[in-house]
């Protein structure tokens, strides 16, 4: 792929990564390296029941200021406010999040309030902060969101009836501990859907307008790892080598999309998630191949690189043919990992997709899509293919 | 004759240019709310003090366009802050405003999704800004 001669970009990825089976046991040592003396652990009830927090609190010993586990599936302003209050009361100076996207986003919101004070409603905007926030270590229990290395958090504000998007470079997690043992018990469907979330981050980072060589490199290797190891994880959850490779891929895809942004797949997934409560990873996985098809003419060179990464490009293929091969391979891949194929399987109705198509046009991600979308009818047509 | 940037005369010219633009009214029909631009000082570029600009946009019409004080600037629905050099890059379309926000080159208090939803309006006012014959503080004209 050729880049413009006037290529210019900023790449930002300050998170330290610690990887390895049982690496989470080193949480106390790593916490000290960040200057933390008392940690609040943020998690949810499911993670507690799965026994994933016990080893962490045991390692922390007297350095654990308490466990805040009241995080629901989609976090909210009140949850973040309560978490920050809990952390303050218990004298915490570092946050350790153990969980998936909702837990990590809650912790990101708490870090701001622990440093700046006030409530989350005081921070409505983009890049408002002017100093580093409370240190945050992330121990992901899924492999998909990439939130462990991004500057963004999405937090529901029920009272205002809207999702708040926090985007703050001063609030990127300082460290992520990728421990394959933490994802070992993830069931096959959740493994597949969170993995497709990561795959979508990687593909969208490649086709998005602000993509650049660093993000392309990260995204392409993420695709290689996911294509090879995600089916292994779905088949054999206890394969820690495969689990680890998928965790690494998700983090690489996180760095890629945090800098190159995402496009139409996310715009549509956010919208159908809001309208019909389709889980984000599943919506991404269902929509990805048809959105690639939609973008084909405007992103053929990027998809040709994806075909190479997947090993489906033959020598005789030009970029357009290779791009088609990548799309076909992506469809087959989602079937191979047992991922849902249709939004109708998720209870989505015709009215839902009409509403979601309108909403998608207003989603922030749409502006980065390589093919300019002017009319909600174009989006509705894609949605209809997934019904 | 170029007008000194970020002066009241320049704001008046900018407002007039927006009003005279044949496409602006229809493109901006959904936008409602004031926008303030805060220009951080840069003495090396002849911007010794912060500059506050307040602009009121309402469904394709334009209202108050003034150089103002900090308090008035902060009363706007959207408050965008950045270094002088960044704002100049935006005016010259060397820097995309949305990308600049996400990269931390500009800061914004306000609802980002609303801005993105109305990105055509934002791009249009930046286009028009580029057409105002301007003398920038660090120009050697």
From TrEMBL, chain A:
The keyword NAD applies. Its EC number is 1.1.1.202. PROSITE patterns: ADH_IRON_1, ADH_IRON_2. The keyword Lipoprotein does not apply. Pfam families: ADH_Fe_C, Fe-ADH. Residues 191-386 form the Fe-containing alcohol dehydrogenase-like C-terminal domain. Keywords: NAD, Oxidoreductase. It is an enzyme of class 1 (oxidoreductase). GO terms for molecular function: 1,3-propanediol dehydrogenase activity; alcohol dehydrogenase (NAD+) activity; metal ion binding. Residues 14-180 form the Alcohol dehydrogenase iron-type/glycerol dehydrogenase GldA domain. Belongs to the iron-containing alcohol dehydrogenase family. This is 1,3-propanediol dehydrogenase. It comes from anaerobic digester metagenome.
TrEMBL record, chain B:
Pfam families: SCP2 (PF02036). InterPro entries: SCP2_sterol-bd_dom (IPR003033), SCP2_sterol-bd_dom_sf (IPR036527). Residues 16-116 form the SCP2 domain. SUPFAM superfamilies: SCP-like. This is SCP-2 sterol transfer family protein. It comes from anaerobic digester metagenome.
